[in-house]
Amino acid sequence: MILKNCRYVVTQNANREILENVDVLLKGQDIIAAGKGLPLSPGDPDILDCTGCIVMPGLINTHAHLGMHSLKGICDDKELHDWLRIVVPKEQAFSKDDVLRNTIAGAREAVRFGTTAIYDSYAYAFERAAIFERLGMRAAVSSTVRKEEDLEAAEKFITSLQGSQLITPVLAAHSPYECSKTLLQKIIKLSNKRNVLRRIHIGETRKERYDVLKKHGKLPIDYLHHLGFLDGKALLVHAIWITKGEVRKIAAAQAKASHNPTSNMKLASGGVMPLIEMLEAGVCVGLGTDSVVSNNNLDLFGEMKLTGLLHKQHRWDPTVMPAQKILDMATIDAAKCLGLDADIGSITPGKRADLIVIPLCHHLLPANDLVSNLVYCANGSDVRDVIIDGKIVLREGEFVERR
Questions:
Q1: Are strands 18-27 and 30-35 parallel, antiparallel or unpaired?
Q2: 49 versus 403: which is more confidently predicted?
């Protein structure tokens, strides 16, 4: 396939180059080159006309729960622990078919808004993984571990995915208040044994912070550090109520973090993730939407804009979050958070062809600073075409059925 006459190609490569008036050549699932006058691969007549369009890497969502999709809007004005008391019983009433229908609806919403890869955690991991395969969407997938009985199924799921092109298994601990010390230690051991990412919700509320301190005599990140949870395979979700000392431990361990500003603000979690301190310490941070019950959509373009506004306002400093860094958090840095940066996150020869096409419509002009326009002006509905693993999944805003 070749993407012809691209007005701009936002590569997100090591030099963050933006190319003008070029083609992007794909072969199978791979990106071959971006440049002028590229020849079509022999035997591949597929041409996508990108005249007047931006081509960029697909967005990558580092935290979602698509299985909750039908609960959108049911619980808008509650703090987390009150929210859980309402939402959890409704989740417990879901059948397997409910969860799978929700996963399909959520995945389609995410793709429609330009997300080509997503980390999704919920029940029925095997069946959800099959849905992502069928839809042609790249996904990191887990079921959440809350008790020791969940571990055997989690390991079976992890071992079942050896060699999958689109699906990456993840081992997901719920939180330090849901998982016992012994269970967290077993999760660490299994993650190391199978060499997979391990995720945990951490530092989400002030209540959690004081409860962990009271029970274990340590702050949440200090507690994870003490257990050996923190290393390059750890993904810390939310991470709001943490100190500078804890940030330094995250950085030293090379753990990653998922920032979910809309969800955190909507649930009034209090405080603001110390994102600037994390970035200054060298922590890799990606963006996530969380579920639509605490967001209420899966539009990562909106998440990018809110990230910039929140941290500029919070720090009283308009310089702290450059648009380029925000775009990184939704693309190449998000790929690093999921351990997928060798394959996705930038338009680089040899990487997988996960791309989106956005027409230069009126609100994206003039293109004085294209990255700024993408972060502060674009929205998911602007996306025209989506390519995942070299296959067109969305064309002219319509889903392409897989054969």
A1: antiparallel
A2: 49
Share of the chain above pLDDT 70, in %: 98
* The pLDDT of residue 39 is above 60: yes
Euclidean distance between CA atoms 99 and 260, whole angstroms: 22
Alpha-carbon dihedral angle through residues 68, 71, 76, 78, given to the nearest 10 degrees: -60
Residue 324, class by beta-carbon neighbours within 10 Å (0-12 exposed, 13-18 middle, 19+ buried)?
middle
Which strand (E) or helix (H) includes residue 168?
strand 167-173
pLDDT at res. 40: 76
Q: CA-based angle 163:258:252, to the nearest 5?
A: 90
Nearest-angstrom CA–CA distance, 118 and 121: 10
Long-range contacts made by residues 208-211, C-beta under 8 angstroms, separation at least 24? 208/175, 208/176, 208/177, 208/241, 209/241, 211/177
Question: What's the rounded Cα separation, in Å, for the pair 214 and 399?
Answer: 51
Average pLDDT score over residue span 235-263: 97
Asked if 1 and 31 touch (Cβ cutoff 8 Å), the reply is no
User: What is the pLDDT averaged over residues 330-356?
Assistant: 98
401 pLDDT band, cuts 50/70/90, is: confident
400: phi > 0 → left, psi -120 to 50 → alpha, else beta; which? beta
**pLDDT tens digits along 257-311:** 999 999 999 998 888 999 999 999 999 999 999 999 999 999 999 999 999 999 9
**Contact yes or no for 179/150 (Cβ under 8 A):** no
Residue 43 has pLDDT above 90, yes or no: no
Q: Which residue has the tokens 């995942």?
A: 388
In angstroms, the CA 402 to CA 136 distance is 7
Give the contacts of 32 (CB within 8 A, at least 6 positions apart).
25, 26, 38, 41, 349
Domains belonging to the chain, first-starting first, are 2-57+346-399 (2.30.40.10), 59-337 (3.20.20.140)
C-alpha to C-alpha distance for 139 and 122, rounded to whole angstroms? 13
DSSP 307: H
What is the separation, in whole angstroms, between the first and last Cα of the chain?
17
Two structure tokens written together for 194? 């199978």
